[in-house]
Amino acid sequence: MAIQDVAEKMRSRVEGSGFDRSVKFDTGSDGVIVIDGATISTTDAPADCTITLALDDLEALVAGELNPTAAFMQGKLKVEGDMSVAMALSQVL
Hints:
Blueprint: H1 3-14, E1 22-26, E2 32-36, E3 39-41, E4 49-53, H2 55-63, H3 68-73, E5 77-81, H4 83-92
Parallel strand pairs: 1-4
Antiparallel strand pairs: 1-2, 2-3, 4-5
Helix pairs in contact: 1-2
């Protein structure tokens, strides 16, 4: 699945969720997804929090097959910046 496809799956959950911060999902050479409030983009931009993970793990996270806390503990994802933003986003996704 391409990064654009993952962004589209996230769009319906984020729009109207009331999420008002910014988060960047960085999948390395596969690209980025930036959520800024209700807006989702695949263009790199600064964010309150950056979550670095593999595209496969991002797909599993969005599909509900990967627990974000477990992924963090296992080293599958790394969080830089405001951790509270990542915690708030986990309620949306």
